[in-house]
């Protein structure tokens, strides 16, 4: 059974947490005591209905203000698929949290209040999901019960958003009219909207095709750890040397010819081991241990790939950065630590080309720095070569984080646009 990771986004009070609560409730994915706690809290707060948003808004400040601040992760499953949900905040000051939640998502649900239509925040989140290359985008027009389930209103919003999405790189866009509060078109089709011929939200989530979203062409295996049993009681394990890591792209099989970077030496895969035993093939995002036919000096941060299909080996990068620090700003000459796959190096910001206004998509080329939650394009100089791909080609080998050297805090997330 495969896993679909999806993130919810949208403006404040559009009903993201309520939608997730409804999904969990209607798919029987919550326990009785959880439901009783939510019902009790709802009564204490004086609401006339069971506030399902309390299932995901776990912070006290979130419950008091009725907003989402942190990224809340929830897990549930149906007979067809497992799901990991990232409930991301809607406020502009929590853009970094939204970027974190959407960075690993296969699909994003952008909620829109049917009464308010496409807001600035809706556009911002749609843009961020396409910047992060989330392959599938669902526009859920919520609170349809408050506009009398009007088909005309739904079509207006669809038309407005479609014209905006033409500026974005949104390969798969789906529109679904819903009412999270009453459960219309969330888990099952709604009788209140007979004019809607599409599937319910859960049906779409269960059947959206994600297998082809992974890069199965470019073999990329960043080495995370070298396994050498020191006290092996089994004589067969005395000479065991395995390279553990997560497959970041392509398909690996025993007997395949592979190349080690940075040495450039070529060998073949002897076997692929997992916790459950040997396997005949490995692909993203499986975590495996490779055994090679030849002894090569390989350590953490190295890369295994195909001889005729190698990543860029680069020390100069052009990247889009989302700045996440409220203490410091990012500008030319800033020195940071860069973490890319399993490799860590030092980086210097050589130039800030522009700051991007995520509301208008305008490029401010006069910007001197990036502040909290701002996004811009920069040039980086790295102290040692990184094995990278463009983010558009591979999100795992095309993404990185930036760390403050003095505090060890993560201060930025980057997407590689070009490697030099």
Automatic annotation (TrEMBL):
Its EC number is 2.7.7.4. It comes from the Bacteria. SUPFAM superfamilies: EF-Tu/eEF-1alpha/eIF2-gamma C-terminal domain, P-loop containing nucleoside triphosphate hydrolases, Translation proteins. Keywords: ATP-binding, GTP-binding, Nucleotide-binding, Nucleotidyltransferase, Transferase. It catalyses: sulfate + ATP + H(+) = adenosine 5'-phosphosulfate + diphosphate. GO terms for biological process: hydrogen sulfide biosynthetic process; sulfate assimilation. CDD domains: CysN_ATPS, CysN_NodQ_II, CysN_NoDQ_III. Pathway: Sulfur metabolism; hydrogen sulfide biosynthesis; sulfite from sulfate: step 1/3. Residues 1-214 form the Tr-type G domain. InterPro entries: CysN_GTP-bd, CysN_II, CysN_NoDQ_III, G_TR_CS, GTP-eEF1A_C, P-loop_NTPase, Small_GTP-bd, SO4_adenylTrfase_lsu. GTP binds at residues 10-17, 87-91, 142-145. One of its GO terms (molecular function) is GTP binding. Belongs to the TRAFAC class translation factor GTPase superfamily. Classic translation factor GTPase family. CysN/NodQ subfamily. PANTHER family: TRANSLATION FACTOR. Heterodimer composed of CysD, the smaller subunit, and CysN. HAMAP family: Sulf_adenylyltr_sub1 (MF_00062). With CysD forms the ATP sulfurylase (ATPS) that catalyzes the adenylation of sulfate producing adenosine 5'-phosphosulfate (APS) and diphosphate, the first enzymatic step in sulfur assimilation pathway. APS synthesis involves the formation of a high-energy phosphoric-sulfuric acid anhydride bond driven by GTP hydrolysis by CysN coupled to ATP hydrolysis by CysD. This is Sulfate adenylyltransferase subunit 1.
């Amino acid at each position: 059974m495969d896993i679909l990771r999806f993130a919810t986004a949208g403006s404040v009070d559009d009903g993201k947490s309520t939608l997730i609560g409804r999904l969990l409730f209607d798919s029987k994915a919550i326990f009785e005591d959880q439901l009783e706690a939510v019902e009790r809290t709802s009564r204490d707060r004086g609401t006339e209905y069971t506030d399902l948003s309390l299932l995901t808004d776990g912070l006290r400040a979130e419950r008091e203000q009725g907003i989402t601040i942190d990224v809340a992760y929830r897990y549930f499953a149906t007979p067809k698929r497992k799901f990991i949900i990232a409930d991301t905040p809607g406020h502009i000051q929590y853009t970094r949290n939204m970027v974190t939640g959407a960075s690993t998502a296969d699909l994003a649900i952008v909620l829109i209040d049917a009464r308010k239509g496409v807001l600035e925040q809706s556009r911002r989140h749609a843009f961020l999901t396409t910047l992060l290359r989330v392959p599938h985008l669902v526009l859920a027009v919520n609170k349809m019960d408050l506009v009398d389930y009007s088909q005309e209103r739904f079509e207006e919003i669809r038309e407005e958003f479609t014209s905006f999405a033409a500026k974005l790189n949104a390969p798969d866009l789906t529109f679904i009219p819903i009412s999270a509060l009453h459960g219309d078109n969330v888990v099952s089709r709604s009788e209140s909207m007979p004019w809607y011929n599409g599937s319910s939200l859960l049906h779409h989530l269960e059947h959206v095709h994600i297998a082809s979203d992974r890069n199965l062409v470019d073999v990329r295996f960043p080495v995370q750890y070298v396994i050498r049993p020191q006290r092996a009681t089994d004589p067969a394990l005395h000479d065991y040397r395995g390279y553990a890591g997560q497959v970041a792209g392509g398909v690996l099989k025993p007997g395949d010819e592979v190349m080690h970077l940075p040495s450039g030496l070529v060998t073949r895969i002897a076997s692929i081991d997992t916790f459950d035993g040997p396997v005949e093939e490995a692909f993203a995002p499986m975590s495996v241990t490779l055994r090679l036919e030849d002894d090569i000096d390989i350590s953490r941060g190295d890369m295994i790939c195909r001889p005729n299909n190698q990543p860029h080996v680069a020390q100069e990068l052009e990247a889009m950065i989302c700045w996440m620090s409220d203490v410091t700003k990012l500008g030319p000459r800033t020195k940071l630590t860069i973490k890319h796959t399993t490799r860590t190096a030092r980086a210097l910001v050589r130039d800030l080309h522009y700051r991007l206004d995520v509301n208008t998509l305008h490029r401010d080329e006069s910007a001197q720095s990036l502040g909290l939650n701002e996004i811009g394009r920069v040039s980086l100089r790295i102290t040692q070569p990184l094995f990278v791909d463009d983010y558009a080609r591979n999100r795992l080998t095309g993404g990185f984080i930036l760390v403050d050297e003095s505090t060890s805090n993560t201060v930025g997330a980057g997407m590689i646009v070009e490697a030099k």
